[in-house]
């Protein structure tokens, strides 16, 4: 029985990335994004690195094409055709448009993800740079904690999105199967006529959770990379606050290695530790620059789409005449709105944590035992503190910084737009 289990896990591990099934090193930085890569591979959306001369390459291409057709192309055609047929009704337009924009933007982010293949793979490789490798037991604890945070955020947000679309999938049951989870129509096909209706309904059961999982991966993979950068900043803060203790540990390790108390580097351990801290900080800056280069475009469009979707949800809500007769639809809109707000909040929260942690480096340096070191070494401290005055942050399209203040502004813009639309409706009703 045990041997069969091992054989099964071994076969399954061949289809999973980075030993997702098997036991793996908990400190491997790839664990920040291993769940993301697993789901992208599951749906055929990960990079195809096989040689085009091999059968495996073309099988992956075929599988990706089938999945992309089922979860993107077919729903896109149906939603566009529905919008064209209902273009005279603002309520139907708003109801169909906010779902259409959300789904299509998921795949736009995926296209940007493929376009940025070189930058993403460089990020994955840079995570294994020497400056990021843990040296102390305390470093291990920080990395494990940050990996757990990144994986929890991905799983929790994706689970919330799948739960939200489950409400939409159950909505036709409450309406006696006279509607579909997503409003779609196709040329020359009556989607509400049996058995066509049931084929399309089962297609929705497949494609909507798949879209949510892919969207959850695309939205939280940036947060995972930022979480790894925050973990490195926390390690750097620990090293700065305890650079004397770090120097003593380094000295003991060297004495064990060389078995000599007259090693020429013994008196320079403090300076050596501070030099490593400066190199570590420089590596973090380069890493954050690479993150921004890879995700700046997609995150900027995410902000703009969020404002548009929030406004469209507001229009859809205002178009409902009798709210008591459409409780399920209102609940669906409320859950959907919560997912959209959470989606942007995750990015802004991690971006805000990055800013705060980077600003704490100055305090960590000042809290260090720098008073009783020599003047030349103090110069390292002064230069480093000057550099830490400028916070590390990630911008969306060079216009918006990922921070909680940006999130607050986004909510304000959306509410103002909703208030304008509500006043317009009230004025029309008064006339």
Verbal overview:
By secondary structure, the chain is mainly alpha-helical. It has helices spanning 2-13, 34-42, 55-85, 90-115, 117-126, 137-174, 196-241, 243-258, 269-319, 327-366, 375-387, 404-430, and strands spanning 395-396, 400-401. A two-stranded antiparallel ribbon has the order 1-2. Strand 1 (395-396) and strand 2 form a beta hairpin. The longest helix has 51 residues, at 269-319. 33% of the residues are buried.
At a glance:
This protein is mainly α and 431 residues long. It has 12 helices and 2 strands.
Q: What fraction of the residues are assigned to beta strands by DSSP?
A: under 5%
Overall shape: elongated
**Total DSSP helices:** 12
Query: Which percent range fits the helix content?
Result: over 70%
**Class by alpha and beta content:** mainly alpha
The total of beta strands comes to: 2
Average of pLDDT: 79
């Amino acid at each position: 029985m045990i041997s069969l289990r091992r054989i099964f896990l071994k076969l399954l591990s061949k289809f999973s990335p980075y030993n997702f099934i098997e036991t793996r090193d908990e400190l491997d930085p790839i664990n920040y994004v291993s769940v993301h890569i697993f789901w992208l591979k599951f749906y055929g959306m990960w990079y195809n690195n096989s040689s085009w001369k091999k059968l495996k390459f073309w099988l992956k291409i075929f599988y990706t094409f089938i999945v992309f057709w089922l979860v993107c192309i077919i729903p896109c055609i149906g939603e566009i055709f529905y919008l064209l047929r209902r273009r005279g009704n603002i309520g139907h337009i708003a109801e169909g448009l906010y779902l259409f924009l959300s789904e299509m933007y998921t795949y736009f982010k995926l296209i940007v993800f493929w376009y940025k293949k070189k930058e993403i793979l460089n990020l994955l490789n840079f995570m294994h740079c020497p400056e990021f490798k843990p040296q102390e037991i305390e470093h291990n604890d920080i990395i494990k904690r940050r990996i757990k945070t990144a994986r929890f955020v991905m799983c929790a947000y994706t689970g919330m999105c799948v739960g939200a679309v489950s409400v939409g999938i159950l909505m036709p049951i409450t309406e006696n199967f006279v509607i579909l989870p997503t409003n779609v129509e196709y040329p020359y096909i009556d989607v509400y006529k049996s058995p066509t209706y049931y084929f399309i309904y089962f297609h929705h059961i497949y494609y909507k959770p798949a879209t949510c999982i892919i969207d959850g991966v695309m939205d939280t993979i940036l947060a995972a990379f930022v979480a790894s950068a925050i973990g490195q900043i926390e390690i750097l803060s620990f090293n700065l606050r305890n650079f004397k203790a770090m120097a003593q540990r380094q000295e003991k390790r060297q004495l064990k290695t060389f078995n000599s108390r007259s090693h020429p580097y013994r008196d320079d351990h403090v300076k050596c530790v501070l030099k490593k801290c400066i190199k570590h900080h420089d590596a973090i800056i380069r890493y954050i620059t690479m993150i921004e280069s890879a995700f700046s475009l997609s995150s900027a469009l995410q902000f703009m789409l969020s404002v548009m979707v929030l406004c469209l949800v507001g229009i859809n809500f205002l178009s409902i005449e009798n709210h008591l007769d459409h409780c399920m639809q209102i609940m669906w809109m409320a859950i959907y709105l919560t997912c959209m707000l959470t989606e942007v909040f995750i990015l802004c929260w991690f971006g805000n944590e990055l800013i705060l942690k980077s600003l704490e480096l100055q305090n960590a340096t000042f809290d260090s035992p720098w008073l009783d070191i020599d003047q030349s070494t103090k110069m390292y401290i002064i230069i480093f503190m000057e550099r830490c005055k400028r916070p590390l942050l990630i911008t969306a399209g060079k216009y918006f910084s990922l921070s909680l203040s940006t999130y607050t502004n986004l909510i304000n813009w959306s509410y103002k737009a909703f208030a304008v639309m509500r006043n317009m409706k009230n004025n029309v009703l008064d006339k």
